[in-house]
Amino acid sequence: MLTFTIRRLILAVPTLLFISLVIFLLLELAPGDPMAQVPLTVPPEVKEKMREALGLGEPLHIRYWKWLVQFFWVEPQVLFDNMFGTTFAEGKQRILSWQTRSPVMDMVAQRLPQTLWVVGMSYIVGVLIALPIGIYSAYRQYSIFDQAGTFVTMIGFSIPPFFTGPLLIMVFAVSLGWFPSVYDTTHVVNDWDSFVVQLRQMIMPVMVLALQTTAQISRFMRASMLDNLNQDYVRTARAKGLPEKMVVMVHVLRNSMIPVITAIALGVPGIFGGAIITEVVFKVNGIGDQLLNALFANDLPSVQTLTFMIAVLIVFFNLIADVLYGVLDPRIRYD
Amino acid sequence: MTEPVQKIEALRDEIEMEPPHSQWRDVWDQFRKHKGALMGGTFLLLITLGVLFGEYIWTLDPQKLDIRNKDVRPIYTVLWNSDAKVQWAHPLGTDNLGRDALANMIVGGRTSMAVGWVAMIIALSIGTTIGVLAGYFRKLDGPLMRLTDLVLSLPILPLLLVAVTLFREQLRGALGPETGMFILIVGVVGVTSWMQTARIVRSEVLALKEREFILAARSIGTRPGAIIRRHLLPNVISPIMVSATLGLATAIITESALSFLGVGFPPDFPTWGKMLADAVPRMDQYPERVVLPGMAISLTVLSVNYLGDGLRDALDPRIRGR
């Protein structure tokens, strides 16, 4: 099992390098000029100096290498320093945003909790709703419940979040006034009342994201249960007189969960991408919002770092999915 | 002298045997049984015809400003609000500059559908090519599938945003605002959504390659190109058709998402996603401007998804005939 994990870990390194190269080259080829906003009265030699101060003077491969070092070596040190009060990263060059001239990672650290709260909660809620639906629709295939479940998942697949979001705002925030339409990120939870406020402002963004998760995971759960329900071991379990609840909830469910758990792990990064839209709709200032702002401001270091962070998340969760699959299904390990 | 063969009464068929069906007749018979797919297909056909030929029936110019008749509500608003400003001349109302909503929906739908179809075709061509090559030529399998895995782990939506924002000006300058944007969006959506098709086609080709008819074709000296064209591609057409429907749905949603985030087509060029995004700030007063384009996107995608579901059932010989 350890060698399996280590092999997967080593395979992740070239993947990450490839992705970082793609992102770097994409931004490099892009025609945007960070000096475009500087007034025309500034003489060209001064502009050249400014360009160098932004780190643009050096050739391509050196900048790529520097960015890699900053991302993989300096920034982890900063994180370590913050956690344990050491001074490893002191005086080292960090990735600076062109927009605010402050380290990109500091802003990410401020904004990431909002994204994680909303996205994480919605994912958990979505999965918790999806699993029972999937199990029951498979157990009673072609029943009314199954048909309704299929219809709801089809709707979940088809209605994009930028439509469900405004729709929910219109119904629940504007007409009924139950929930606030804007997510207040400065809100501090310190007692029961503020917790209720937090809960109320989270319900709508979480529901929007959870609808999509539910659609995907419940489809998957249903298919996986259907595969297992006709297997011989299920007939054996029934034949030896186990109660039906035991057969379905223990024997079938455990075996069906193997692909579902990997699907759950694989779905996490996709949710981060989808969260960009939800963050815009509900005005959550998470990292998706930060990415959009940086893009419109032509702030290339921020864009680079944020895109790559999402890529790292994807690779990381792919890895988790792989390892989980190995843990749950011994047949995979010995490939 | 041999006696003529006697017909054995017990073996005689009760019912006359039907003449054999062609494969596509069977597929159609199965497809017809799936009500959702049939409805989805019909709806998709209607909406396609609507956006293609709608402007010949509803001849109002979508860009015509008519400031006197601005903010007209859709005709059905009268049902619950009898003082609402409605006109039969604008059955779906007008926007804040007096542009007719129905005409805009038709033109916007044409853009959305065109983007969806072209992006889907690009993704399918790339995916099928890579899938067939990887499945048929063993040497190419490793590198091509590694590439597919790598592209699968790219963060697609952020990269789309980055590509569209950064290359927008250049392409607009070179090809004009509308064509440039169309090519850019279609290109990036197509280039980033071929991976599932490639994987499915590869696995089908891998299985087909071991079958006897391929061996027969190879043994009479058929070249690889001819084998792929004549024997492999017709046999992988069904998974390709299913992933085509999925690709169409994804492409329509992605284009609308880009328009919604404000990196889509230029402002005077309506698409459904753009109309929705523009209407969000005033949706408490004019909810229909959000609902109508949103419904159009959702219903189109829903019908495409149902169509794909039905196609999958109809094209799968194990399910067909049950």
Automatic annotation (TrEMBL), chain A:
PANTHER family associated with the record: DIPEPTIDE TRANSPORT SYSTEM PERMEASE PROTEIN DPPB-RELATED (PTHR43163:SF6)
A cellular component term, taken from the record's GO annotations: plasma membrane
Protein name according to UniProt: Glutathione transport system permease protein GsiC
One of the Pfam families matching this protein, by short name: BPD_transp_1
Start and end residues of each ABC transmembrane type-1 domain: 112-321
Protein family per UniProt: Belongs to the binding-protein-dependent transport system permease family.
Principal cellular location given in the protein's record: membrane
Matches recorded under InterPro entries: BPD_transp_1_N, MetI-like, MetI-like_sf
UniProtKB/TrEMBL annotation, chain B:
GO BP term, example: transmembrane transport
ABC transmembrane type-1 domain segment(s): 109-308
Bilayer-spanning residue ranges: 37-58, 114-137, 149-167, 179-201, 232-253, 290-308
Keywords for the protein's UniProt record, in alphabetical order: Cell membrane, Membrane, Transmembrane, Transmembrane helix, Transport
Main location: membrane
A Pfam match: BPD_transp_1
Recorded topology in the membrane: Multi-pass membrane protein
One Gene Ontology CC term in the entry: plasma membrane
InterPro entries (UniProt xref): BP-dependent_transpt_permease, MetI-like, MetI-like_sf, OppC_N
Location(s), subcellular: Cell membrane
Family (UniProt): Belongs to the binding-protein-dependent transport system permease family.
Protein name, entry field: Glutathione transport system permease protein GsiD
Species assigned in the record: Shimia thalassica
Lineage, uppermost ranks: Bacteria, Pseudomonadati, Pseudomonadota, Alphaproteobacteria, Rhodobacterales
Gene: gsiD_1
